[in-house]
Amino acid sequence: MKKNFINKYNSIKDIVFKQFLTINIIIVNLILSLDYLNAKDNQKNIDTKSTQSSQIVKENTDDQSKVENFDSKEFLIKIKDHKFQPEVIKIKANQSFKLVIENLDQTIEEFESDDLKKEKLVGANKKITINVQPLAKGEYKFYGDFHQKTAQGKIIVE
Question: N or C terminus of the chain with fewer C-beta within 10 Å?
Answer without folding.
Answer: N
